[in-house]
Amino acid sequence: MGLGMAIAVGAWSMVAVIALVAAAGLYMALITRKQKNTDALEEARTDAKRWYDMLSGQLASLSSGDDPVASRALSDASERHTAAAGQLAEAVTIGHYRQVRRTATEGLRYIGAARARLGLVAGPQGPPPVAPDGRPMYEEGYRAVIPDTMDEPVRVSETRGPAKPTVRGVARLMRHQ
Q1: Considering the chain, what is the average pLDDT of its residues?
Q2: On the CB side of 163, how many CA atoms lie within 13 Å of its CA?
Q3: Which residues cross the membrane (predicted)?
Q4: For 36-80, what is each residue's pLDDT tens digit?
Q5: Residue 52's pLDDT is what?
Q6: Quick one: pLDDT at residue 109?
Q7: SS3 assignment, position 156
Q8: What integer pLDDT is reported at residue 125 of this predicted model?
Q9: Cα separation, 45 vs 29, whole angstroms
Q10: From CA 65, how far away is CA 67, in angstroms rounded?
């Protein structure tokens, strides 16, 4: 009975050691995963804040003068700025920060439309594009380009009335004035 008991204790000891090693490995994996999620969240927050700050700077430094189309574009950009500020204040997930970035980018497109209307260089449309090797790419003589897809008509909803003018609507107005 002494030998059988020793074997049983030894087997249970081995099971306990294996369980402890597995628990330690699981704990380390969870800590690593949590750190990666925290890093990704911080990266998303920093990126969203950069786009929001860029929109803030452009709004602060640009005036439409007497041009009604540029004035409307700046007004729309200001609305996006206000929306992005609210979204940024409430953001807690990566998806929320991505929405802040989308809203700020849309505001920057309105800024680009206003700058083009005023005959100015396009200005920043957001962080510069990045080449596959990670270097920023710049285009010679960069100016706002209004794609052909912006000729779409402004949508009208029977229940809500005219839709708010979009970048497409501002671009269309710019070409016809």
Answers
A1: 75
A2: 12
A3: 6-30
A4: 888 889 999 999 999 999 999 889 888 877 888 888 888 999 999
A5: 93
A6: 87
A7: strand
A8: 59
A9: 24
A10: 6
Contacts of 163 (CB under 8 A, 6+ apart): 154, 155, 156, 157
Question: Could you give the 3-state DSSP secondary structure of residue 152?
Answer: coil
Question: Distance between CA 37 and CA 124 in Å, rounded?
Answer: 30
CB 60 within 8 A of CB 79: no
d(CA 105, CA 77): 9
Q: Where are the domains of the chain?
A: 2-116+150-176
Among 50, 149, 165, 64, residue whose Cα is nearest residue 105: 50
Residues of the chain with pLDDT under 50: 128-130, 136-169, 171-177
Torsion (CA) 161, 165, 170, 172 in degrees, nearest 10: -40
